[in-house]
Amino acid sequence: MGIILKRDSSALKCVFVCDFYKSDLNNKGGAENNDSVLISLLEKHGFEVEKKYSKEVSPQFIETNKKKKFIISNFVSLSEDAKLSLQNKSYIIYEHDHKYLKTRDPSKFPNFIAPKDQVINLDFYANSQAVICLSNSQADSVRNNLDISNVESIGCSLWSSEKLDFISSIANTPKEKDFCIVSSQNPTKGTREAIQFCQKNSISYDLIQSSDEKEFLTKLSQYKTLVFIPTVLESLCRLVVEAKMLNCKVMTKTQLLGASNEEWFGLNGQELIDVIRRKQKSAIKIFETALNKSSICEPQSKNEDITVILNCYRRPEHLKVQIKAIKEQSIRPKEIWLWVNYHEDNKDIDFSLFAVDKIFRNDYNWKFYGRFAGALLSRTKYIAMFDDDTIPGTRWLENCLSTMKTSEGILVGNGITLTQNQYVGREFVGWTSSNLKTIEVDLGGHAWFFKQEWLKYLWMERPYMLENGEDIQFSYLAQKYGKIKTYCPPHPPQDREMFSSLKGYEYGVDTKATSQVQNHQKFYDERNRCVKNALKNGWSLVKDRSLQK
Question: Does 215 reside within a domain?
């Protein structure tokens, strides 16, 4: 006889709070349509949902319903007293735009980061169990502006199954008309800007609108191209995604579209519709997990005293995913810096569009030592440095800080132990082979983690050569002058989130790798010479010290 586990019914009750519901706006509001689908999905998954207008939510109402979970959608009408009262209860925020800024639009500021005097509702966001966003770009903006880590992205908007079925049924409508612009009185939807764009570029267009969703989508499906010029940073942009599901091309500013950074943005038609259906299933799981947390979220801790330094040379295409991986760390750094060595592959890139704190853009290729020189300017306790082919797991920085407590030294992601008195002939540990415990090594790279004050040792002697061997030189001189060893933290195969590199075999062996670009034999001859120079001047290898024991 099977055992049926009955869930606690009190844990299934929640209050959905927003300024307006779908019926209030004659089906026009994207956020309200989104909320309507979410409420329906939650009810289908066993939640008892009470709908409440934000203007009606008082501290007394919150106290009376303190055992329920609160979902806060748009909350312009929510009183400050209600916000304060909620901070002692269990609630999540479903963020549709950017209500943590006075402007509700980060695009007005460099790198989408507003001055501190523009930030509002900080405590309200920081003390929620989760801030759930529509896109990764929107989630990054919340994290960057509020310096909090309780932020998640569902990576899509929400449509009902019936709406997706309808879109699918008209997705292959013959495109008999060329360009259209949505006629909207809302200035953020950019109707005026789209018209000006078309007029400037001699594009003939039609204005389309309808208060009926199906009628509007049917009109849109007849056009080859939608012209949409957003005037704010769109959290996702439901309209553009609908156009793409209808096999329409889109002329737009992708840098202002949250959807443009999602992995599915290049898809169209039925293929995109199928992906959106799958994304919605994973989205409801994110909401369920957040709502079923048993305790109120603790206030967010400050970022750790770490400066992350990234390096860009010939792989600028990896920067977005690398920055995203850094920002999703379980222990987040205080700042992210970017060191750019000049190369034809990156000369036309606007690096100010990347969400980093400081950028060193050079008109010269300083090769391997440049970023270590830039790191001298940091004032944090620790430096975490990554090669441009290195995407860490979410617990790598946490792994390094834990390792520092038991094995203080230069920590590396790809640990190398020399089996001979030269570079050729060596053993690897780390992400390439996995190791269950911390292992002392002679040198390493791909990812470094060390105390900022140790950088001085790298410059105690003139580099043997600037074209190669900075990893050898750092471990050699730190050992010689600071008695500092080099270690590789654990890389347990069952927990890849602790790994220093998740895509090394994919990104690190392309034709842009230094060992591949220059003469292979020359590269390793140079490294052999670096090793022999260090040994000649006092470097002690692990193999030799183990024999002495």
Answer: yes
Give the amino acid at 390: T
Give a yes or no: residue 461 inside a domain. yes
Do 215 and 131 reside in the same domain of the chain? no
| Residue ranges in 27-157 assigned as alpha helix (H) | 30-44, 59-64, 80-86, 122-126, 136-146
Residues 140 and 73 in one domain: yes
Task: Quote the radius of gyration of the chain (alpha carbons, Å).
Answer: 27
Q: What is the pLDDT along the chain (549 residues), one digit of tens a residue?
A: 333 333 444 448 999 999 999 888 766 678 999 999 999 999 999 999 999 999 999 999 998 999 999 999 999 999 998 998 898 788 999 999 999 999 999 999 998 999 999 999 998 998 899 999 999 999 999 999 998 888 999 999 999 999 999 999 999 999 999 999 999 999 999 999 999 999 999 999 999 999 899 999 999 999 999 999 999 999 999 999 999 999 999 999 999 999 998 999 999 999 999 999 999 999 999 999 888 874 444 434 446 899 999 998 877 888 988 999 999 998 999 999 999 998 888 888 888 888 899 999 998 999 889 999 999 999 999 999 999 999 999 999 999 998 998 899 999 999 999 999 999 889 999 999 889 889 999 999 999 999 999 999 999 999 999 999 999 999 999 999 999 999 999 998 878 899 999 987 777 555 555 544 456 788 899 999 999 999 999 999 999 886 655
Residue 89: inside a domain? yes
Query: How far is CA 50 from its chain centroid?
Result: 33
Cα–Cα distance between 437 and 318 in angstroms, integer?
A: 30
* Owning domain of residue 29: 9-153
Under 8 Å between Cβ of 155 and 189 = no
- The SS3 call for residue 543 is helix
Residue at 210 is within a domain: yes
How many domains are there within the chain? 3
